[in-house]
Write a structure and sequence with these properties.
single chain, mainly alpha, 2 domains, 7 helices, 0% strand, DUF1700 domain-containing protein, transmembrane helix, membrane, transmembrane
Length: 214
């Protein structure tokens, strides 16, 4: 650091004190460097220390016992300035977001419609599959009972061998229907709720990210 840089920083650090006191302080240190001469510049800089230290000393002499209150008031003012700037930045960001949403309305509304269409298609497909599976299971149960009854009738009517075969087939079909019922209970009790929760989380994720960033 040289004399010019030192005096420039010192003047910036003293920008919050009255102009007369700031001018007197700057004249004092400028004369101090002038009296020492160029060859003693580095010695004077080492003697004075940092501009921050000199500025603090000047302010302590100026404010006296009120220096601590001055420092506290300055910190509060700086904090208010920071908070005000943050509020302005948030407001500006929200305005830009709204403007971007308005300008890109055709794009994102199309994407929303596409996503909604995909979800409707997925749910419709799942519903169709569920209905088909339920129909097959119900058909197996009814068919199993019907075939078993037919087999009993055949056995009683004098065709025991045929009747037993038909009964065995009916019971097999009925057992397949029972297994289908168990599978449906498991699917509707475990898989469907998990799938619905996953879809809901997927739909909420973009809004959660946007809300966290605001």
């Amino acid at each position: 650091m040289n004399r010019k840089e030192f005096l420039k920083q010192l003047e910036e650090l003293l920008s919050d004190i009255p102009e007369a006191e700031r001018r007197d302080a700057m004249n004092y240190y400028q004369n101090y460097f002038d009296d020492a001469g160029v060859e003693q510049e580095q010695t004077i800089l080492e003697e004075l220390g940092s501009p921050e230290k000199v500025a603090e000393s000047i302010k302590r002499d100026l404010f006296g016992e009120n220096y601590d209150a001055y420092v506290k008031a300055k910190q509060e003012k700086q904090q208010e300035t920071i908070e005000k700037q943050q509020r302005e930045n948030r407001t500006l960001r929200n305005i830009l977001i709204v403007v971007a949403l308005v300008l890109t309305f055709p794009i994102w509304i199309g994407l929303v419609a596409l996503a909604f269409g995909i979800l409707v298609t997925v749910f419709a497909g799942l519903f169709g599959v569920a209905v088909a599976v339920i129909a097959v299971v119900a058909a197996c149960l009814f068919a199993g009972v019907a075939v078993t009854v037919i087999g009993m009738i055949k056995a009683v009517a004098g065709f025991p061998a045929v009747g037993l075969i038909v009964i065995a087939g009916g019971l097999l079909v009925f057992m397949i229907g029972i297994l289908g019922v168990v599978a449906l209970v498991w699917i509707f009790g475990r898989i469907f709720p998990w799938l619905i929760r996953a879809i809901v989380r997927l739909c909420k994720r973009p809004f959660q990210k946007r809300g966290a960033s605001i």
